[in-house]
Amino acid sequence: MKPLSLKWRISLWISAVLIAVIAIISYAAYAEFEESHLRSIDLTLKAMANGIVSSLDTSSNKEKWAEKVGKITGSSNENPSTLYRIWLDGSSVDMLMSDVPNSEHGHWLHELSEQNKPLLEESNFLNIGIPHNEYRAVWLRHKIDEGIVNIVVAGSSYFTYHEMNEFLWLLLVLGSSLIIGSIVATMWIVRCGLRPIDTTAERLQDITRPNIGEVVFDYKKVPKELRPFMEALNDMLNRLDRVLRQQKQFTSDAAHELRTPLSLAKSTLQAAQIHERQPAEYRQAIDDSLEDIARMEYLIEQLLVLTRLDEADGNTISGEVQLDVLLQELAETYGKKMERSGGKVVFEESPNISIQGNIDELIRLFSNVLHNAVKYGPPDGTISLSLEPESDSNVKICIHDEGGNIPKDTLPHLFDRFYRADPSRSKNTGGAGLGLAIAREIARRHNGAISITSSPDSGTLVCIRLVRT
Amino acid sequence: MRVLIIEDEIKIARNITRVLDGEYSWAVDISTDGEDGRHMAMTNPYDLIILDLGLPKINGIEILRDLRKNGKTTPVLILTARDDTQDIVQGLESGSDDYMVKPFDMRELMARCQALVRRSYSRVDPVIKIAGLSINTAKHQVIYRKKSVRLSAMEYRLLEYLAMRAGEVVSKADIVEHLYSFGSENFSNVVEVYICSLRKKLGSGQSGEVIHTLRNQGYVLGELPT
Question: Which residues in B lie closer than 8 A to residue A270 (C-beta atoms)?
Fold first, then answer.
């Protein structure tokens, strides 16, 4: 079954609650109304009965007494609204009766249930009659000289019940109109409240890649309850826009970086091809082109590494890596490179430290930093590596070189992709500005961080912090 | 013709130079950074500027805007790795005459360069015909009175420039500025030497000289201006 829409669900709930509340209120009002009406009838009847009793005690003359009773009850043959019957216990003949015994009313007065019979000198109230002709009656028993006299006085309560029915109808009409009104109001409010979602959905349909950054949902006019949703939506669109922009920038940078060596090789070969040349010129063209192709190869490899790092999920840890051993090996490898130009690489003695990580990625991380140190430091300078535990959970690896001519304002961008401190694409050093970006990505994947400081006096210091476990 | 290449990738600049100089006998200057490039473009009467966009110090678009703001009408061809439509539109709207994306085809670049220079001298036809002389600027063939004439690179360079401005008085200073790059040792009397050898190769016809000399003013190819 299809689930009910929100507005119907809310309406149903509200009407259910309203029905219950109205029913309880109606019942209570009805009962209270009935009770107060009957009480006022009862008081009158009781007063009449008491009047008859006192007239019995005082009147000696039977005719006068009958007249008195007639006066007390205000009843006559023309207006039988008050009925009465007075008889002695055990006697089948009435002392006095408001109506002829055979009439319908007299019939009711003669067929009183023994159950309702009150004790001596006490009274009971009872309902007699048939629907639409109801009577309320009081039955009183009193001792006189002749015996025990029974007095029943009955008054019509038909109008009471009639009024009560009208009251009940009124309650029903009021209650149902309240329910219908509230359902309509609820549906309207819910629809108005949810309209921003509809319009939002419509606008979301229109979003395409180029205009994603321009879409901003104005959430000041929407109901307060929907604001977090709209804010989150705006946030999400912003983030998407940023990611797409970065992606686009990355693609365009990558294309640019790849095109440069490609156009170099192409122009070299075409320049050589235009007419016959000496073998030495051809050789030169081939060597130049190969150099450019090598540059492209290196760039493509870097791009692939970065793409794989981006695509791989967070789970990078593949085993235990003995950091001191790894750094020692790297120091030796790069030491040999530095020796050729009169420099050296020093690895300071360190305790045995191992961490959980991916050894290939960590080698790439340290190599990229060392590569830069060799490239940008003085050729005959010293590169020093250090490894020390920073806290129980962190280790710090620092790589220091004696170069230090990185301009201060470029420091924050050094880890950005394709960023190079020297904007004229450093042809002699051949990088594409991806080494440090890759290093940072690997450090991040190991829940670590990488930072760089540089000054002409103290040289350049790159520190990598990694989590031990 | 004299060309300025502002390109930070020195190898690309050298390859273009090799073809422009070797095949087309054009004089070429190279600048590898924006600041220097802008200075050179502002102070020399180039016939064409090949401009890269991503340059150190000052970017290409800025150089271009500065040139146009200062009233320089030199044709500019942007040669860059940026292939975004947005970049191309911005380049052309900033005052460039053509736009090529790297990696480029050398022949196409040459053809575009020639077309730009031709247009800047209001020449529609690549073959310039004047006073019995026919100069095919695309193929570098010179025919005089139905006979093919073989010229040296410098002789051709001079003739092409005079042909582009045929009918006008071209001063010696103009010739020096348009035919020699920065590095070359130019002496104004060298111009006289080349004019002389050109005249010899073309021969004096019945209708007089093809190249006229106006004392203290310069030279005119074709008919003298009245």
Answer: 15, 19, 105-107
